[in-house]
Amino acid sequence: MPLKGYVSRELIKYVQPTHPAEAAFQNAKAVITPQHLGLPVRQQQSPAQAPSATFQLVQPKIVAIATDTYLKPMQFIADPLLPGKHVLGFGQDLSFATGRTQLHGPSVGTTPAALEIKMRRLLKEFASNDSRGKARRLFDAFLKPQRTLIFWSDPDLTADAEAHPNVTTFVHRALSAPNSPERTTGQVRIHQALEKVG
Predict the structure, then answer these.
(1) Which residues contact 67 (CB under 8 A, 6 or more apart)?
(2) What secondary structure letter does DSSP report for 38?
(3) How many Cα atoms within 13 Å fall on the side-chain side of residue 80?
(4) Distance of alpha carbon 7 from alpha carbon 39, whole angstroms
(5) Which secondary structure element, helix H or strand E, spans residue 40, and what is its range?
(6) Phi, psi of 143 (to 5 degrees)
(7) DSSP-derived 3-state class of residue 139
(8) Does residue 12 contact residue 56 with C-beta atoms inside 8 Å?
(9) pLDDT at 133
(10) 128: left (phi > 0), else alpha (psi -120 to 50), else beta?
(11) How many helices (H) and strands (E) does the chain have?
């Protein structure tokens, strides 16, 4: 049974398969009509040897941002890695300072040098199997003097997080697609919420 959907052609680009085997591997064909908006995409089952077309987003787009209603935003930072330069609001749990006295618990030291020694010990205790140095790079970035809050990311850490079962389960539950292994029956799905608000 054909699957029908709609997409604006400004959002997608045609990707020509680089090898004939890639085209043969595809088992679906997308038929694109030339309308400017509300572009129908008909996905038809076809034999493995039939030609196929692949379409990708021209660039990533953010369609929704979730916000916790119980947190009052106190820090506002634009994430340079997000498309559209969105300014994100963070709650009171995101703060930083230097030179303050530790209120309780074990001392982290009174100087950056003392703190670094204590932190480096944690690498040996908790990240001894980190063969690619993800934890070390995280510590290096944290210990580098900063006067303002910044976003930090690491390609290896991101790749490992994306492949972690906890993250993949969260994504499946958030999307709740009909064929998702984590579909939540009865809950409003993302595309339904977007459709409702226009």
Answers:
(1) 89
(2) S
(3) 5
(4) 5
(5) strand 39-45
(6) -80, -10
(7) helix
(8) yes
(9) 93
(10) alpha
(11) 6, 7
> Which spans in the chain are helix H?
20-25, 112-126, 134-143, 155-163, 165-175, 190-196
Walk along the chain (198 residues) in steps of 10 and give the mean pLDDT of each run.
70 69 44 39 46 73 74 83 81 69 74 89 92 93 84 90 90 78 78 81
What 34-39 contacts at long range (C-beta under 8 Å, 24+ apart), as own/partner pairs, is 34/9, 35/9, 36/8, 36/9, 37/8, 38/6, 38/8, 39/6, 39/7, 39/8, 39/9
Distances (CA, A) of 75 to 56, 69, 94, 141, 148: 35, 15, 7, 20, 11
Tokens standing for 114?
């003392």
The tokens for 78 are 């634009």
- Please give the pLDDT value at position 172: 83
* CA gap 110, 98 in Å, rounded: 10
The structure tokens listed for 29 are: 């064909």
Question: Are the C-beta atoms of 77 and 41 separated by less than 8 Å?
Answer: no
H/E stretch holding 31 reads strand 28-32
pLDDT reported for residue 52: 61
Write out the two tokens for 132: 């690619």
pTM score of the predicted model: 0.56
3-7 and 12-15 beta bridge pairing = unpaired
